[in-house]
């Protein structure tokens, strides 16, 4: 579904991605783990078209994304939940979800999706007319994911969904990510919480310093001694 081939990205003189190659197959949860500053967010932003590679290619659903305008990414079937969630604080939950469906015209199907999202996140239903800025961190993350799902993505990009959340809420969010995947959405999950991410992912890439340092089945990496000592605090 997604392939990055030798992707190099710069911020001015800063060479942030130094030849990243990776794949996400349909139906998978793939996770990118790695230390702060490794290049995980830059990788997601390059996939969603916010940043353009200087060298290399991103192929999504058979299309070379160098030739696609970033504003068309959503209609291609990609949704990005950015680091820090970026919900619209002064809009209600309902209005935030409506924003997620902006590219769609299938009213009856949109209505079904609201229902599905409120089933997945009952807390959002209880608060649907409340301003999003007044929600807790966990609820804001649920809303950010719900808003992304309103575009009915084939591929969901999640950047640090666990950031700043209490362990119990993190558990809840990860279990919801698993459910979303089981119901047919492919997921690319960026996480500093490597142990949680490796537990729900099928495959993983360890990013270090703009490179892919290691890749493999998530269960293998979870038991790898070097991954354990560098990223799992063991
Ligand atoms: N807007 C920016 N301008 C300059 N350098 C940046 C910018 N954003 C990120 N970087 C640098 O790019 C590298 C990768 O950052 P990032 O992708 O945010 O890492 P991660 O998400 O893994 O923490 C870091 O060295 C970071 O300092
Ligand atoms: Mg980041």
What does this molecule look like?
- With 234 residues, the chain is an alpha/beta fold.
- It is 37% helix and 26% strand.
- It is built from 10 helices and 10 strands.
- The protein has helices at residues 40-47, 73-76, 93-100, 107-120, 122-126, 137-149, 167-182, 194-200, 218-222, 225-231, and strands at residues 2-11, 14-24, 29-33, 55-60, 63-64, 78-81, 155-159, 186-191, 203-208, 211-217.
- The strands form 2 sheets. Strands 6-7-8-3-9-10 form a 6-stranded mixed β-sheet, with helices on both faces.
- Strand 4 (55-60) and strand 5 (63-64) form a beta hairpin.
- The longest helix is centred in the C-terminal third of the chain and has 16 residues, at 167-182.
- The chain is globular.
- The two termini are 34 Å apart.
- The structure holds adenosine-5'-diphosphate and magnesium ion.
- Magnesium ion (MG) is lined by residues 40-41, 83, 160.
Top keywords for this entry?
single chain; 234 residues; alpha/beta; 6-stranded mixed beta sheet; 4-stranded antiparallel beta sheet; 10 helices; 37% helix; binds adenosine-5'-diphosphate; binds magnesium ion
